[in-house]
Design goal:
The chain is mainly alpha-helical. Helices cover 74% and strands 0% of the residues.
């Protein structure tokens, strides 16, 4: 069974990785295209990024409890801080990386 991946399957981080590869590593980018692996690699990057995002956010939430557990706004702010922190790590360790 052949794996068919479309550009809609690669997600946010997959698209960012493709842009990064195209701009910073054009030879490797073309290599992935020639081997018909670009979208498959991008999908893997996206999946790995979201797994890392979930792990980092979960750890952040354990360490940073809201003062008012019933405050939706406070929880939202804490989650946004966790997501921003996680995305910094994801960009450096997964997206903006030579694959």
């Amino acid at each position: 069974m052949d794996l068919v991946v479309t550009s809609t399957d690669i997600g946010k981080y997959g698209h960012l990785w493709i842009s990064y590869m195209k701009e910073n590593h054009p030879d490797r980018y073309r290599h992935h295209i020639r081997l018909d692996q670009l979208l498959i690699k991008a999908k893997k990057v996206n999946e790995e990024a979201y797994e890392m995002l979930d792990r980092i956010v979960e750890k952040y939430l354990v360490k940073h409890k809201p003062k008012d557990a019933h405050s939706t706004m406070e929880m939202w702010k804490i989650r946004e801080q966790a997501k921003q922190l996680a995305e910094e790590v994801i960009y450096g360790e997964i997206v903006y990386k030579y694959h």
